[in-house]
Amino acid sequence: MSSAMPITDVHNFCKETFEVDFCLKYIGSDQRMVAARDFSDMFLITISETQIQVTNAITHINNIRQSLNDPLGKNRIGLCEEKYEVAATSFHKAWEIGQKKSNSSTDRMEITRSTQAGFDAVCECEDEWSKHGPRQESPLTFYYHNVLKLCQITRLIISKLEA
């Protein structure tokens, strides 16, 4: 497709991130990149991947809920479920605004705010595992790290859109 972003541009972009291999795996190898025309399309792919990670975390929460027998663990996983739902809503809102492909500063600011709100919610879940009692290992750390990396990539994409 002649109007698509050259794959070399995608690879060069990934080299600008803190997580080159992660970017190449989750963004560079995404089948939708073949049709991506610009950073607006790359943003949509990245925020979609973030939504997938959040959805997978919610599924994981539902799968492990019964294995948490103590009240503290149950409270923590309940809070995480709430926070990941907030994250899902926030990232979806960013995706919806991104669909407009608007160049307005108001839309860019709202995308940034929504993305940050989603990330903050995921961080609040992760932080909960060290509060209000003995520190426990979070069963959601894998998803937290993936969302963190995807949000860092998203911030870089947004900076490219603003340039």
Automatic annotation (TrEMBL):
GO molecular function annotation: pectinesterase inhibitor activity
Keywords, alphabetical: Disulfide bond, Signal
Highest taxon of the lineage: Eukaryota
Domain named Pectinesterase inhibitor: residues: 5-157
Family matches, as InterPro entries: Invertase/methylesterase_inhib (IPR035513), PCW_Enzyme_Inhibitor (IPR052421), Pectinesterase_inhib_dom (IPR006501), PMEI_plant (IPR034086)
SUPFAM superfamilies recorded: Plant invertase/pectin methylesterase inhibitor (SSF101148)
Pfam entry (one): PMEI
NCBIfam families documented for this protein: PME_inhib
Family, similarity comment: Belongs to the PMEI family.
Protein name (database record): Pectinesterase inhibitor domain-containing protein
Organism: Arabidopsis arenosa
Taxonomic lineage from the root: Eukaryota, Viridiplantae, Streptophyta, Embryophyta, Tracheophyta
